[in-house]
Design a protein that fits this description.
This protein is mainly β. The chain contains 2 helices and 28 strands. The protein has a domain of about 230 residues: 7 Propeller (Methylamine Dehydrogenase, Chain H). Strand 6 and strand 7 form a beta hairpin. The longest helix has 6 residues. The two termini are about 35 Å apart.
């Protein structure tokens, strides 16, 4: 069965030169939400295209955006100044960096390195690696819980739990018959959501480190995002061309949203309740109204988009394109 990671492993030539900032109009919206969101979606556009090089697939951030060169030769993380729309630093990390997460409270960035089974801990103030944590295995997604200062890393058949205070692995959760990929956290409920590529989402109690629910979703789920304000979880299903919407309280799928072709990355703007799903198969981003669960715009972006990150304070979304760029969405 094709998996999201396999679909994203590409052979992309290096860019010939810098990609200038561009503005791309949105494709006609399939629906319009009620309320103030309508005027915002109408202005949704690609405000800039930032060259980062390599083959980025994952992305995370808050005031700064962090983009690992997931499939390229660089073994680096590019740092983008959110207001400048340009790369301001490049940080050497471990081999084949993949998943990345930001703990805004400690200003630490965690990078899962597939090639050597480690997690690089980056100091967000100095933009240097402060620690390297041996985890082992083939690492995928990573998520940080700022309330508990714990970090969760998807491995081949397990999820590793890291203490942000000691930079050590404090627990390893064995998972039978699953293939963990994307990870997300709701810090308010202390629940961790892990996409299992075999068609489910695992719910982990962060206090006990136990799986408390297994939720069936679509085919080949990959990335996960949480809106902590509404306790809603969003999961992209690459082979179903859908996004599953999960109620965090009832642990049930409440909606299944058709999006573009082969959705991968997903992120939530918790201030506007807008969800972004990147579609690697047709080079677009589906913009979803969280109140109506309707796709309200489809935005063309760069080559084979993967991960998505949001800076909710300035209402910007950042899309990692495997062609070596990051698309900046504004007005959504």
């Amino acid at each position: 069965m094709k998996c999201p990671r396999c679909a994203l492993i590409l052979s992309v030539a290096a860019l010939a030169g810098l990609v200038p900032a561009t503005t791309t109009p949105a494709v006609a919206a399939s629906a319009q939400p009620a309320g103030n969101t309508t005027s915002l979606i109408a202005a949704c556009r690609v405000a800039a295209t930032i060259p980062v090089g390599g083959v980025p697939m994952w992305i995370a951030g808050n005031y700064r955006i962090y983009v690992p060169d997931s499939e390229g030769p660089g073994n680096t993380v590019s740092v983008i100044g959110a207001r400048r729309n340009r790369v301001i630093a490049s940080i050497p990390v471990g081999s084949a960096p993949a998943g990345v997460a930001v703990d805004w409270k400690t200003n630490r960035i965690y990078v899962a390195n597939r090639g050597d089974g480690t997690v690089s801990v980056v100091n967000g103030q100095t933009e240097t690696v402060a620690a390297t944590i041996p985890v082992g295995g083939f690492l995928e997604g990573v998520a940080a819980n700022w309330k508990t200062n714990r970090i969760y890393v998807a491995q081949e058949r397990t999820v590793a739990v890291i203490s942000g205070q000691t930079n050590t692995v404090t627990a390893t959760l064995p998972l039978t018959g699953v293939a963990p990929y994307g990870v997300a956290v709701n810090p308010w409920t202390n629940r961790i959501y892990v996409a299992n590529k075999f068609g489910t989402v695992l719910v982990i109690n962060g206090q006990t480190n136990k799986v408390v629910a297994t939720i069936p979703v679509g085919t080949a789920p990959g990335f996960v995002a949480v809106n902590p304000n509404t306790n809603t979880i969003y999961v992209t299903n690459a082979q179903s061309n859908t996004v599953s919407v999960i109620n965090g309280q009832t642990r049930t799928v409440t909606a299944t949203i058709p999006v573009g072709t082969e959705p991968t990355g997903v992120a939530v703007n918790r201030a506007t309740d807008v969800i972004y799903a990147a579609n690697v198969g047709d080079n677009t981003v589906s913009v979803i109204n969280g109140q109506t669960n309707a796709v309200v715009a489809t935005i063309p972006v760069g080559l084979r988009p993967g991960g998505v990150a949001v800076n909710w304070k300035i209402n910007r979304a950042y899309v990692a394109n495997a062609g070596g760029t990051v698309s900046v969405l504004a007005g959504c």
